[in-house]
Amino acid sequence: MVYHSSFVDEEGITKACGFPLLPLKSHIRGPAPVSDQGKTDIVDEAITFFRANVFFRNFDIKSPADKLLIYLTFYINVALKRLEGCRTLAEGTKAIINLGLEDVPVPGESGFPFPGLFVLPQSQKEAELLRNYLKQIREETSGRLLSVAYRPNGTPNKWWLAFAKRKFMNIIVP
């Protein structure tokens, strides 16, 4: 059974291209609203559910937050692929920073992993809002992923990095 997001209440949540701009527990500047530090956010859910959800080829979408969960699951898969060859936390941090410097495609642009799943941007402003949100959420996810992919002593956690070999929804990670 696929794990779905608990963020099904859409009231007051801004959307861009079908993505809900959910609150984040983040210190990174961006368009995401700030969430309480004690609450679970979408990044926590994505990391928690990743090891179960990565095995599924199909994903029933029950809310717009599930689309964001799909995107984050794919991004975690990409990040783990980059961390696969890194033997220390310092090497892993460098690889994740380089991943964060890459362009963030939005629906309708080449390189976006889920064509057809998300609505095309209606304006350049909406595209930039989504691009900035995705950049912020990717940076936040990367930072939190490092804390689970590596042990406190800086060595790789094989129980996480083993999932780099999995393909999520049969999508080949670049």
UniProtKB/TrEMBL annotation:
<keyword id="KW-0963">Cytoplasm</keyword>
<protein>
    <recommendedName>
        <fullName>Actin-related protein 2/3 complex subunit 3</fullName>
    </recommendedName>
</protein>
<dbReference type="InterPro" id="IPR036753">
    <property type="entry name" value="ARPC3_sf"/>
</dbReference>
<comment type="subunit">
    <text>Component of the Arp2/3 complex.</text>
</comment>
<comment type="function">
    <text>Functions as component of the Arp2/3 complex which is involved in regulation of actin polymerization and together with an activating nucleation-promoting factor (NPF) mediates the formation of branched actin networks.</text>
</comment>
<keyword id="KW-0206">Cytoskeleton</keyword>
<dbReference type="InterPro" id="IPR007204">
    <property type="entry name" value="ARPC3"/>
</dbReference>
<comment type="similarity">
    <text>Belongs to the ARPC3 family.</text>
</comment>
<dbReference type="Pfam" id="PF04062">
    <property type="entry name" value="P21-Arc"/>
</dbReference>
<keyword id="KW-0009">Actin-binding</keyword>
